[in-house]
Amino acid sequence: MISMKQEAASFVTELLGELGAIGAETGGGVTRLLYSPEWLEAQKFLARRMKGLGFEVRYDRVGNLYGRLPGTMKNGPVILTGSHIDTVRCGGRYDGAYGIAAAIAALSYLNETYGQPTYSLEVVSFCEEEGSRFPLTYWGSGNAVGLYDWDGAAEVRDAEKTSLKEAMEAAGFGKPEQPEALRSDLAAYIELHIEQGPILERMHKRIGIVEAIVGQRRYGITVRGEANHAGTTPMPMRKDALAGASEMIIQLEAEAIQWGEPLVATVGRIEAAPNTPNVVPETVQFTVDIRHHDERVLDSFSGHIINKFKEIARWRGLELSTVCWLEAKPAPMHKDLSDRLEKISGDLSLPYRRMVSGAGHDAQLFPGVCPTAMLFVPSKGGISHSPDEYTAPDELADGVSVLAALLYELAYEEKLP
Amino acid sequence: MISMKQEAASFVTELLGELGAIGAETGGGVTRLLYSPEWLEAQKFLARRMKGLGFEVRYDRVGNLYGRLPGTMKNGPVILTGSHIDTVRCGGRYDGAYGIAAAIAALSYLNETYGQPTYSLEVVSFCEEEGSRFPLTYWGSGNAVGLYDWDGAAEVRDAEKTSLKEAMEAAGFGKPEQPEALRSDLAAYIELHIEQGPILERMHKRIGIVEAIVGQRRYGITVRGEANHAGTTPMPMRKDALAGASEMIIQLEAEAIQWGEPLVATVGRIEAAPNTPNVVPETVQFTVDIRHHDERVLDSFSGHIINKFKEIARWRGLELSTVCWLEAKPAPMHKDLSDRLEKISGDLSLPYRRMVSGAGHDAQLFPGVCPTAMLFVPSKGGISHSPDEYTAPDELADGVSVLAALLYELAYEEKLP
């Protein structure tokens, strides 16, 4: 397996270079929004490449692109691997694209080396994951697993008021004669992705084996006090919404640290009103993003922190209102598949770490449908969603090696989980 | 003196009602920006009223309006009292206007009751104090005391790019033949104003005797950390600019409370970047406004708090930059005049409080020119710069009584400080 590393490194690097040129911004970064011309060009490019490698290529009705290496067992289970082709605005070349390029590399290598598999292997280039054009995420994988009813697509609109349905049809999809997106033939879904975080790099690990993708709570918090003259209002007579919010933010951070890894809690957005240097702030709104892979921890931490906020507000004579506007369940990966990834990494002498994914991925939609696994390669500086996203060619090849080995077990050795 | 109270209450209330109709906004509030048509109408209205009361009326070159009750001593010292006629946008009817109306009421009462004074008494309606149209404050009193060189007025522009000079000329001022604004004949300046704060009301006092107008430091603070993914960056690996700023804000509040009244410190404005719920904030900018009447305290508190901020930044691995962009010296009022105001309040059985003004006033420009005193009447709910600004008629009359008594001592009894 190690003999393929150099070849995989150059194959993936080259493919990512070609893909990264599609939707490249003049100021750096790549933008391929769902159903845009750049997006369509990228899918067509991948279709041509996979056809050239001998894969059977097809689109489904929402524009997910599949490349199939058919198994000897007709109508047998399918082993699916891949990621998403869309990007954030001015994103990097690796997020999503790497999982597709690596999957193509792995299938191509397996096909050349071992011929036809028993179970069919498929690469998927999901049409959408990021939610950068329309206010929804996982449009590709969500259709594959039956999360979305695509008839609702006429309602969802982008910033230019184009509906998802109109955009889909303009790109040539959404036709009744096209194959349905829903899959019911999957025996496993394996996704390879860049980490988008600093852990592997800092711990000098080459492979991250994802045990779970975190669940998430997102709150909107509003703290209301009294706007007062900053010169004439003595400190004890103030109801300062920003001082109250600051105390809450510090408390949130302290509690998150105390509860320990892998819990993370973030206040990313804050707005004060009237937001004038010489007026004591009347209202502060801020967001709280809490993530953990265990729903019970999510529940109890969220409840605990909201109570702390209430105490602070009461003590300071402030009004508090909290709205939970996002609640995503944690997605545990398949234990047997994770164990196999661990063994493979060990066999290939690749330092690995079992870890939790703090970011969302297409893989989190599959545990209810089929055994699912996810693996990471390091992200330089933990940077993602930026033109500075980078993973070195040999690290890219590590991921391909581990992925190919697992796909071999599943599709050739018929060791289904 | 108490016999005049009812008359003063109705005189001042009526005058404030008429003034408040000039520049009244349909949605409530009064807007009279420097040199605007409403501003000019208000000055002309006051000129007519004062002429009708027998005062000698004149404008100076920048549009300050004076009404004079000439003393028997020709070319003798002048006792000046008044405030400013301009308002903030959608301001109240009392801020500034009350000090002028009360001065007219007091002079009119003294003239009717005691005839001509020995020293001349003058009411001033300063053209500008708020800084609401042009980015400068105290334009009226600043010209009277020689703070401003009005030739620079061509450079300062309002939001519509009109220069101060153009606006002044359009309103009929700025002509060489008009009297110079600078005064060199003043024996005292006395200003009566609403408190614009909650202290008198909460302490059930009728008169505030201002011992000093606070000095002020205003800082712009920038905290710089690292933008990171809110899901994939473990808590200990973060450099969260907002958590750092929050700790600074809490520290500032705690220290200000600990240093004690009358020190006040306020963070009124905050901006975070990128200000996105799922990204750890990279940069936070906030303002710090610190006020105290003793420059040494201002100095040492400011130095202390900036050091605390530096410690917090260092501890958290954040970059800190601080810019002091406003530094106003405290203005102590004249002790003898304050003592006299105290005695007068006692004689009139008006509960009073010696206090510090946390807001800036025209009076703060006069201590270098002549003995200066300032007194307050209560503001309902401490509210100011708002259509809800309110002081009851009998409280307005209290101020007139105390002011008239002091002016009597100064101009009739010739007891100069």
Automatic annotation (TrEMBL), chains A, B:
Task: Please name the InterPro entries in this protein's record.
Answer: Amidase_Cbmase, Bact_exopeptidase_dim_dom, Peptidase_M20, Peptidase_M20_dimer
Report keywords, A-Z.
Answer: Hydrolase
Q: What class of enzyme is it?
A: hydrolase
Q: What is one Pfam family matched by this protein?
A: M20_dimer
Please provide, alphabetically and separated by semicolons, the GO molecular function terms listed in this UniProt record.
allantoate deiminase activity
All copies of the Peptidase M20 dimerisation domain together span 217-313
Q: Show which residues constitute the signal peptide.
A: none
Could you tell me the EC number(s) of this protein? 3.5.3.9
Tell me the protein family, please.
Answer: Belongs to the peptidase M20 family.
PANTHER family referenced in this protein's UniProt entry, alphabetically: ALLANTOATE AMIDOHYDROLASE, ALLANTOATE DEIMINASE-RELATED
Q: What name appears for this protein in its UniProt entry? A: Allantoate deiminase
